[in-house]
Design goal:
With 126 residues, the chain is α+β, with helices and mostly antiparallel strands. It has helices at residues 15-25, 37-50, 64-75, 82-88, 93-105, and strands at 53-56, 60-63, 109-112, 115-118. Helix content is 45%, strand content 13%.
Length: 126
């Protein structure tokens, strides 16, 4: 079951973009969508422009709502390592690292060595 797209907020998104968004919204396959740039780039750009998909370094594509769900889970948990995140969210280690680094770059998480935690927990961690 994917995360619902707010169609009323994004009425200009094409049917092809909606279908790709639905694929990206399913946690079990969100990270498995291969970037066939010639075919998917225009649709990905459409989803990015609508603010419902994120392409992070390394070419990984995630639905924005999936990233938000992972962020919420990580903020409510004890600090974690990238392998823990990979296991918990069915990601490869590289995909988990890229996603964690993306969240750090956007001020959502902090990193101390090999451990990531919620940005507001930074003062309490040693």
């Amino acid at each position: 079951m994917g995360f619902p797209m707010q169609t009323d907020r994004h009425p200009c998104v094409s049917p092809a973009a909606r279908m790709l968004y639905e694929e990206l919204s399913r946690p079990s396959i969100a990270h498995r969508v291969a970037l066939e740039k010639r075919r998917l780039l225009p649709v990905l750009n459409e989803l990015r422009a609508a603010g419902v998909a994120v392409v992070i370094p390394g070419g990984h594509v995630f639905a924005s709502t999936y990233i938000e769900e992972i962020h919420r889970c990580l903020c409510s948990a004890a600090p974690v390592g990238s392998r823990d995140v990979a296991t918990r969210f069915d990601l490869t280690h590289g995909q988990a690292r890229a996603l964690l680094d993306y969240l750090v770059d956007h001020g959502r998480l902090v990193r101390r060595g090999r451990i990531w935690s919620a940005a507001d927990d930074a003062d309490g961690q040693s």
